[in-house]
Amino acid sequence: MGRKIISFIQEITESLYWIQGENNATFPYCHTYLYNEDVLIVFDPNCGKNRLKKGLAQLGKTLSDIDFVINSHFHIDHIGTNYLIKKKSAAKFLIHEADRIAVENFDAYVARYGMDRQLEPQWRATLKMLGYKEMTPDQTFNEDELLPGNFQVVHTPGHSPGHSCFLKSQILLSGDIDLTSPWVGNLSSNVADYLNSLKKLKKLKLNMILPSHGVPIFDNIPHALDKFYQRFLDREEKIYNLLPNHPVTLDELTKRLFRSYSKNQQKQLERRQAFFTFHFGKISCLNFLQHLELNGKVKKIILKNEEYWEKIE
């Protein structure tokens, strides 16, 4: 199986290509994958507008030749170029049914992030700047459906309710199950679902994993999945151990978590998430606390009309 380099495009197979996202595919970009055989499919087109155009040109194609755009989930670093493609082509847009509402309704999208009154206007402006436009998908899909190009849907909720991977010939386009750092900084994220999704993927026989961030995995895939699964458990244990011996607010716990990071880790977070770093960290903490609560390790209590969390001894 060839993996030929064509500029910043890498040929994965004779019909599948990887366009490396700008800025090393960190937010607000992702890797894009092109399938070019009987139809031209673009998976998560937000690698950067110029890169996408140049990548298509390497295959003798333009935006107008795209037949389908398939999104792994609703986040802006994956859908930000959808509207440009819609204007330039007759492409059909597909996403999982559970994420449909977030791409066709801006208020529903924003609500999934749980921003307070101070942050929400800035978040709305940021999303618009990054390319958010309300769009109704031409088609939604669910578990095990066969999509154009004979890609099988593997529904993997956790990162988002509708997050999905796409499987063909033991190659998995894994979206934001990228085997780097667990991200559940969204009110619609769910730690239990994410862990179950990883268990599902571990049952598949895979030759390679092509993620939206990080780097493709060609070797030792079971080990890579196990290692990523363990990172979730380690993150959860860290949050649990940061809980003091008295009730603590979510804000206080999040501050404890941020203080535990190295200066380099803090800089990386700030560079990637900028103004919203603390908020995403707080929602991530909340999602792990809810998973710990589900497992009977912590509980939420109300004191003076404010929520607190404490360990269950």
Q: Could you tell me the radius of gyration in angstroms?
A: 20 Å
What is the helix tally?
12
- Per CATH, the superfamily of the largest domain is Ribonuclease Z/Hydroxyacylglutathione hydrolase-like
For the record, the CATH class of the largest domain is Alpha Beta
Percentage of β-strand residues: 15-25%
Order of helices and strands: EEEHEEHEHHEHHHEEEEEHEHHHHEE
* Low-confidence regions: none
Helix-residue proportion: 25-40%
Q: How many strand elements?
A: 15
CATH architecture of the largest domain: 4-Layer Sandwich
Described by the principal axes of the CA atoms, the overall outline is globular
CATH topology of the largest domain: Metallo-beta-lactamase, Chain A
* Strand order of the biggest β-sheet: 1-2-3-4-5-6-7-8
The averaged pLDDT comes out at 94
Overall structural class, as computed from helix and strand content, comes to alpha/beta
Task: Report the sheet with the most strands, covering strand number, pairing sense and barrel closure.
Answer: 8 strands, mixed
Overall structural domain count: 2
Distance between the termini: 55 Å
